[in-house]
């Protein structure tokens, strides 16, 4: 563990002194950021999902950026929280902290603030130098994969968040477990590869720390190494509020798009069929990311397929082709079944054909899935004849 940390510090000390092509391409609006962030900071940005969760930040928020590096995301967050909010960046590499600290007053001035509300602290993700329950939103861009003890890092995020607070983390994950020969390659740790967890493992650790309503905001394929697909993902999750007034609501009906689904507390739902729920489940389903997929009521409310609230995306009745695509259920549900007899398990890749790919790319399904392609080159699959009900995979 100590060796891994030293290798990471060495790598990022050098990367702070001189810009390096580390990590992956990002989607920053550099023209916009140049208006208030000095070039020196922009030149040493090493994120993988940028901008990491910026759309989730609100005026007045207390934001914590873990592994803040040269400060790019902390500075962008400072613009979004306004002068009434505050931003703390934490990093373990002195050279990165030096650049970020030197530029903080400049950024605050460029933003027109009368005081500097951006602070950088030296510390580790696994032992954050931050007070418990003091933060509205934790952001982190391409850092957790570099931490040897990810359970502790997620528990720390949970500790520092206020009740109802949230995290938005961009990171590199893999579709399969990363083998030992990559895991112990110190060069690849610094490049955000070896420390990358299999996505299911990553999600389990987030859940074990206590987070709920965990869902994907963004994903993009990155690199395939020795048959392992590494991809960048941006996830959000909530520290649930303890006291929730249920307003007498007792029944939930799944709207879809899944025909069957299991929530993060293990409750099963059939689309359109109401079921009674307990207080903990109501608090879960009332969280914004779940709410749009359920009808909550004081009485059972069945939904027929003719109801405009009923969500169904059926596959087209046509042949399909196997092209090497795998769907990984990521958001909200532990399991979900589509209308073509596939059951997806959170974090486990399932091979899908071209017809199912079209279904999962539809607006209602897309936010639930990361999709990777494992074929080397173009798969020359021939068309497969489907069954009378349209199903073929
Ligand atoms: C890939 S860079 C990303 C920096 C920044 N988030 C960005 O987007 O430019 C990783 C940063 O995380 C820091 N870091 C890595 N592991 C850490 C840990 N366990 N605790 C605190 N900082 C860590 C490194 O020093 C480095 O500055």
Mean pLDDT comes to: 91
Q: Give the number of helices.
A: 12
Strand order of the largest sheet: 3-2-1-4-5-7-6
Instruction: Estimate the helix proportion, in percent.
Output: 25-40%
Q: Which radius of gyration do the C-alpha atoms yield?
A: 22 Å
* Proper CATH architecture of the largest domain: 3-Layer(aba) Sandwich
| Biggest beta sheet attributes | 7 strands, mixed
Ligand identities? S-adenosylmethionine
Highest CATH level, the class of the largest domain: Alpha Beta
Number of strands: 18
Looking at the structure, what is the overall shape?
A: globular
Derived structural class:
alpha+beta
CATH superfamily of the largest domain: Vaccinia Virus protein VP39
Helix and strand pattern:
HHHEHEHEEHEHHHEEEEEEHHEEEEEHEE
Q: The CATH topology of the largest domain is what?
A: Rossmann fold
- Flag low-confidence runs: none
Distance between the termini: 43 Å
**What is the percentage of strand-forming residues?**
25-35%
* Total domain modules: 3
Write up what this structure looks like.
There is one protein chain. With 393 residues, the chain is α+β, with helices and mostly antiparallel strands. It folds into 3 domains: 2-238, 3-Layer(aba) Sandwich (Rossmann fold); 245-312, Ribosomal Protein L9, domain 1, CATH 3.40.5; 320-384, 3-Layer(aba) Sandwich (Ribosomal Protein L9, domain 1). It is 26% helix and 27% strand. It contains 12 helices and 18 strands. The chain has a 7-stranded mixed beta sheet. Helix 5 links the parallel strand 2 and strand 3 (118-122). Helix 4 (72-81) packs parallel to helix 5 and helix 6 packs across helix 9. It is globular, with a radius of gyration of 22 Å. It starts with a helix and ends in a 9-residue tail after the last strand. The mean pLDDT is 91. Bound molecules: S-adenosylmethionine (SAM).
């Amino acid at each position: 563990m100590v060796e891994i940390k030293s290798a990471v510090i060495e790598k990022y000390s050098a990367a702070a002194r001189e810009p390096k092509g580390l990590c992956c391409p990002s989607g920053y609006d550099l023209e916009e950021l140049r208006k208030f962030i000095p070039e020196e900071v922009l030149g040493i940005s090493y994120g993988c999902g940028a901008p990491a969760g910026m759309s989730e930040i609100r005026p007045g928020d207390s934001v914590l950026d873990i592994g803040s590096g040269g400060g790019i995301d902390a500075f962008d967050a400072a613009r979004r929280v306004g002068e009434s909010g505050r931003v703390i960046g934490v990093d373990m590499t002195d050279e990165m902290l030096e650049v970020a600290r030197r530029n903080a007053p400049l950024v605050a001035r460029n933003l027109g603030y009368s005081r500097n509300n951006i602070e950088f602290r030296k510390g580790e993700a696994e032992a954050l130098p931050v007070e418990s329950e003091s933060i509205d939103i934790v952001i982190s861009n391409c850092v957790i994969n570099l931490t040897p003890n990810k359970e502790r890092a997620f528990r720390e995020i949970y500790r520092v968040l206020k009740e109802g607070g949230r995290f938005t983390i961009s990171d590199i994950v893999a579709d399969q477990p990363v083998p030992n020969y990559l895991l112990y390659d110190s060069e690849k740790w610094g490049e955000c590869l070896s420390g990358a967890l299999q996505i299911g493992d990553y999600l389990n650790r987030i859940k074990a720390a206590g987070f709920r309503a965990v869902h994907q905001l963004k994903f993009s394929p990155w690199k395939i190494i020795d048959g392992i697909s590494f991809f960048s993902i941006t996830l959000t999750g909530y520290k649930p509020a303890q006291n929730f007034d249920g307003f007498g609501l007792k029944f939930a009906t799944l709207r879809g798009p899944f025909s069957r689904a299991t929530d993060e507390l293990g409750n099963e739902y059939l689309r359109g069929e109401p079921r009674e729920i307990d207080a903990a489940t109501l608090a879960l389903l009332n969280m914004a990311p779940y709410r749009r997929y359920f009808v909550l009521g004081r009485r059972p409310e069945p939904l027929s397929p003719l109801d405009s609230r009923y969500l169904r995306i059926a596959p087209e009745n046509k042949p399909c082709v196997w092209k090497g695509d795998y769907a990984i259920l990521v958001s909200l549900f532990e399991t979900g079944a589509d209308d073509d007899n596939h059951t997806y398990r959170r974090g486990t890749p399932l091979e899908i054909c071209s017809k199912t790919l079209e279904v999962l790319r539809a607006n209602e399904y897309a936010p639930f899935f990361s999709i990777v392609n494992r074929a080397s080159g173009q798969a020359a699959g021939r068309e497969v004849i489907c069954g009378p009900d349209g199903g073929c995979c």
